[in-house]
Amino acid sequence: MTNIAFTGGGTGGHIYPGLAVAGALKERLDAAGLSHGIFWIGADKGMDREIVQRAGIEFHGVPAGKLRRYFSLKTIPDAFRVAAGFFAARRILKKRGARLLFSKGGFVSVPPCAAAASLGIPVLTHESDFSPGLASRINLRFARRRGGVFFMAYEETARFLAEADKGVARVAGNPVRRAFRRADPERGRAFLGLRPGERLLLILGGSQGAREVNDLARACLGALRERYVVAHQTGNAEGSAREPGYIPLPYIGEEMPDVLAAAEIVIGRSGAGTVWECATLGKPMILIPLSGSGTRGDQVENARFFEKAGAAIVFAGEQATAENLSRAVADLAGDPAARERMSAAAARIGSLDGAEIVSAEIEKILRKCAEESGGPRR
User: Does position 121 have pLDDT exceeding 90, yes or no?
Assistant: First the structure.
């Protein structure tokens, strides 16, 4: 049996795309009749274990410490956790005889990637955002060894790479779970209890809640409900009462693909997962990126890319006002041609199937490794 390791975590944005690749890879290897085992190395604390195990994948927890560009009182203990994570991941990879490691990034992924490289195991890593984060920059060093690959969501990301790194870079888009490509708007409407003819506006405050988005939504709720039924994922910490034309939901789980498919317009942050899931379903977007000193600006970069492509309207910083949001929704609601143009632009981006591209490359490398060691294992 060929064992394949996955890593990444810390947030759902670093886990769900990895699960999308794992799902596509399983389908591909099953169809080819190749015996395989997939397991995940993630943080021993936090949400990683629950999400991965719920997807039916074997999970191994290791110590994880955050990577910082600045000194903090937590830097020293985190450094010890990173070192402990390296040795723990190395033991797991060696014991399981992993032939390849795929990383979806996040600070959790660096020790397993380093451990895989130290064992001569090919490392493939994926960057979801427009510009590479610190973990991706580190993991890229390990991907340069022994036939690894650095996958990019955007072709323009290559300009952030050194010339020596561009040889292992591949454009793949962002992996999106198969459920989004198979979504049914009628199931989404039934889940929300919409009546025939009711139009849906979906507001994504995030699974943990995004205060700026939620506050803006409430400030212009009256105006939004003039044209739409508003479904609002508020986040677990928020409390809102349901009322006519307004459906607050702390969290939308497995129903999210169908709910997203039913929406006419989507309002939300511009995390990599959100914008690519919307693009997969060809949804016009109004994006309110996280900005300011507390972020490296990745959401603003993502949002501007979709804005330039004609798939989104962006309100960043001081532009993010209830007045601007209300006006944008009203304009789009009354302009089917504009919505159609934005939908087509989004769908062009979302047509790049990241899960399929990455899983195909993984299969290719696995077959090569198998041939070098005496033939494929079936």
Answer: yes
**pLDDT digits 0-9 by tens, 14-35:** 899 999 999 999 999 999 888 8
Q: Are 274 and 207 in contact (CB under 8 A)?
A: no
Token pair in block for residue 191: 């889940």
Q: What is the 3-state secondary structure (H, E, C) of the chain?
A: CEEEEEECCCCHHHCHHHHHHHHHHHHHHHHHCCCEEEEEEEECCCCHHHHHHHCCCEEEEECCCCCCCCCCCCHHHHHHHHHHHHHHHHHHHHHHCEEEEEECCCHHHHHHHHHHHHCCCCEEEEECCCCCCHHHHHHHHHHCCCCCEEEECCHHHHHHCCHHHHHHEEECCCCCCHHHHCCCHHHHHHHHCCCCCCCEEEEECCCCCCHHHHHHHHHCHHHHCCCCEEEEECCCCCCCCCECCEEEECCCCCCHHHHHHHCCEEEECCCHHHHHHHHHCCCCEEECCCCCCCCCCHHHHHHHHHHHHCCEEECCHHHCCHHHHHHHHHHHHCCHHHHHHHHHHHHHHHCCCHHHHHHHHHHHHHHHHHHHCCCCCC
Residue 112 · residue 96 · CB < 8 Å = no
Among the listed residues 41, 14, 33, the one whose alpha carbon sits nearest the alpha carbon of residue 127? 14
Task: Give the pTM.
Answer: 0.89
Output Rg (C-alpha) for the chain, integer angstroms.
Answer: 21
Phi/psi of residue 103, nearest 5 degrees = -110, 130
Partnered with residue 101 across adjacent β-strands are 5, 123
In this predicted structure, what is the pLDDT of residue 219?
95
